Amino acid sequence: MNFKDKVVYQIYPKSYCDTNGDGIGDLPGIISKLDYLHDLGVDYLWLNPIYPSPQRDNGYDVADYCAIDPAYGSMADFERLCEEAEKRGIHIMLDMVFNHTSTAHLWFQKALAGEEKYRRYYLFRPGKADGSAPTNWQSKFGGPAWAYAPEVGQYYLHLFDETQADLDWSNPDVRAELAAIVNFWRGKGVHGFRFDVINLISKRAFEDDPNYFDGRQYYTDGPHVHAWLQELNRASFGQDPDSFTVGEMSSTTLAACVHYAGTESGELSSVFTFHHLKVDYKNQQKWALQPFDFAALKTLISDWQTGMAAGNAWNALFWNNHDQPRALSRFGNDREHHHASATMLASVLHCLRGTPYIYQGEEIGMTNAYFDDIDDYRDVESTNLYAELTAQGRPAAEIHTLLRARSRDNARTPMQWDSSPQAGFSSGTPWLRVNPNYPRINAADAVRDPHSIYHHYRSLIALRKQESVIQDGDYTLLLADHPQIFAYRRDNADAELIVLANFYDEATSAALPLETLARPGDYQLLLGNYPAAPALSAHTPLRPYEAIIYLRRK
Ligand code: TEU
Ligand code: CA
């Protein structure tokens, strides 16, 4: 299937639209918004997990892979969602959380009850001679990555929360179960799959980590990961010529991703990678703040653009998801330049080579939540951090600064539909507070205003479908050393595209080396984010956060 002209929209079901007033978004709510999504022009809807779950990690702790959590609706609702979406030419993409299950899953319960078959589904290991955990690895959510199960007399590995037990993929029964789950959903007409932290499934060895302490070198891009993905592909989605898959790759490398998402690899269609979203991490630490490193951002995006193309592999393109603070609040200016910075970020991303993802609310310029009360937070990672740093004696104000910048709840606040109470998300009390800026930032206003951020996204989606150069053109970085401008060229047999974007509050100008351009007069303005964009010249002026896309047809 050709997916080069497709755009994916990510829905966080819990926060999208609540139709029965329990404060939790649901499948009927998504169905009620399909016309909105169709008008936007997206092709796929990736839904975060909707399976029965204790919700300790908002559904990434799956208790049953082949059912719908009653909080979201029924299987009949899901089938209706698929049908109604397909009627509008939209496909559903489901989230497959296969590195771990919830400890509430029947498999784990049977393991605890002493069934040998199921104990072998997980990574139970004896403690060290002194009774301490088998290795010193740290959980990604803080604390040790091993928990002791007295029922078994051993520890089990959990790279995430202690209620998320890692599966043992080296057990062929496990791999067969997982393929059967994909096939179950294929049977419902699902063609799209997103695989959660799929590059962590192959553990290299269970040893103390002397270097980084967290253990990631022992399980990231492990020895069998490619073989197991190829096997899963053959046993499930690879049998469907219309399948489209994306793997979430944690702390990976370009070389590994060329395999994961290589056209000829028989693994996945595409990958999510995160290097470009760590440029504001001080010393690679999520909970240490620094202004984003613009030079690094450009280099990373460019290296992945050219490296994946050279390897004949395909990338996902995204600024936002449910785990990231809002990019607009992070790389833009969500106060004085709300519209310009939101549309600039969108323009830069949507003209790159790869599949663009729009995370719910991004298309209307939703911002970080900026909560200042720990009771407003729901995410286990945030509440764990608060407890941990408080215990270390860090002042509350300091911890709040970190959470306001980095908490995953920044992205998870309810979708802002209109200016009615609770932003039109729910008639009850939302599970997570609505951002108080909804009277100003909401979908109803955005759809009405032809110059809104929403309409800019619509135009970008339409352009990808119209212009083959956006789908498959070669990428070249321009003005590599410019401290404010991200500029690049896309080029194929049909056309040449030039994108100029100012990432900062101050005006500047793009001095493109004229010898690299065909006659400047040949470039037409395709899309700008300010009224009256200038023509392309040797010194194209750019206002704060201005982004301009030019096209030259061949
Ligand atoms: O996330 C994987 C992951 O490692 C991160 O994005 C993580 O949330 C972040 O590093 C914490 O700082 C995936 C899901 O997207 C996330 O929501 C889940 O919590 C996680 O896997 C476990 O299933
Ligand atoms: Ca509901």
Automatic annotation (TrEMBL):
Keywords assigned: Glycosidase, Hydrolase
Against Pfam families, the record matches this protein to: Alpha-amylase
Q: Name one GO molecular function term.
A: alpha,alpha-phosphotrehalase activity
Task: Give the enzyme's main class according to its UniProt record, as a single word.
Answer: hydrolase
Task: Fetch the SUPFAM superfamilies from UniProt.
Answer: (Trans)glycosidases, Glycosyl hydrolase domain
- Gene3D superfamilies, sorted: Glycosidases, Golgi alpha-mannosidase II, Oligo-1,6-glucosidase, Domain 2
The EC number on file is 3.2.1.93
GO:BP terms for this protein? trehalose catabolic process
Where is each Glycosyl hydrolase family 13 catalytic domain found?
Answer: 10-412
Known InterPro entries for this protein?
A: GH, GH13_cat_dom, Glyco_hydro_b, O16G_dom_2, Trehalose_TreC
Q: Kindly list the GO CC terms recorded for this protein.
A: cytoplasm
Into which family does the record put it?
Answer: Belongs to the glycosyl hydrolase 13 family.
Please report the name of this protein according to its UniProt entry.
Answer: Alpha,alpha-phosphotrehalase
Q: Which organism is it from?
A: Cardiobacterium valvarum
Q: Where is the organism placed in the taxonomic lineage, from the top?
A: Bacteria, Pseudomonadati, Pseudomonadota, Gammaproteobacteria, Cardiobacteriales
